[in-house]
Amino acid sequence: MTALGRVVHIGPEAGDAFRIGPDRFRTLGGPSQRAEEYAAIVYEAAAGVPGPPLHRHTKFEEAWFILDGKVEFLTARRPLVAAAGSYLRIPRGVPHTFRVVGGRPARWLGIISPGSYVKLLQELGRLVPPTGPPDAAKVARLFARYDTELV
């Protein structure tokens, strides 16, 4: 990563990489420990693996641009399939979850605001084993620490 004044450039393989179960993430836009206005992540998710439990964020928002594959989002209890080229913005307070559909992995770009909330994903990665479900009570406690309610 190079910073030129206020401009940040991150190369194609740079950024902090981590996993949540079989899914892969790469953070973009600087260290996630700072309270930047937003953080960007690249998310590569496996097909056939359930996403997070239905939840809502009370203090941060997400936006997603699907790069490849199909992702079914359940927002406000309505399913919506987003294919490559689709954009979704999930405001704070809106219940949501997602899963990859179509039998092949999906890849999407996510924007999280404020950026410090990317730490939720990084910590979740330490709770979710490569296969099988995580400890639900530990996930609930983690979500609560990051102003996220299970629905």
Short description:
13% of the residues lie in helices and 44% in strands. It has helices at residues 118-127, 136-145; strands at residues 2-4, 7-9, 17-20, 23-28, 39-45, 55-57, 61-68, 70-75, 78-83, 87-90, 96-101, 106-113, 148-150. The strands form four sheets. The chain has a six-stranded antiparallel sheet with strand order 3-4-5-12-7-10, with helices on one face.
Q: Mean of the pLDDT scores?
A: 87
Q: Helix fraction?
A: 10-25%
Strand content: 35-45%
- Examine the secondary-structure arrangement and name the CATH architecture: Sandwich
Question: Can you tell me the residue ranges where pLDDT is under 50 for at least 5 consecutive residues?
Answer: none
- Cα separation of the termini: 38 Å
**Pattern of helices and strands:** EEEEEEEEEEEEHHE
CATH class: Mainly Beta
CATH topology name: Jelly Rolls
Q: State the secondary-structure class.
A: mainly beta
Overall 3D geometry?
globular
The CATH homologous superfamily is named: Jelly Rolls
Q: In order across it, which strands form the biggest sheet?
A: 3-4-5-12-7-10
Number of separate domains: 1
What is the count of DSSP helices, taking H or I runs of 4+ residues? 2
Largest beta-sheet characterization: 6 strands, antiparallel
- Global Rg: 15 Å
Number of strands: 13
Write the topology of this structure.
Blueprint: E1 2-4, E2 7-9, E3 17-20, E4 23-28, E5 39-45, E6 55-57, E7 61-68, E8 70-75, E9 78-83, E10 87-90, E11 96-101, E12 106-113, H1 118-127, H2 136-145, E13 148-150
Antiparallel strand pairs: 1-2, 3-4, 4-5, 5-12, 6-13, 7-10, 7-12, 8-9, 8-11
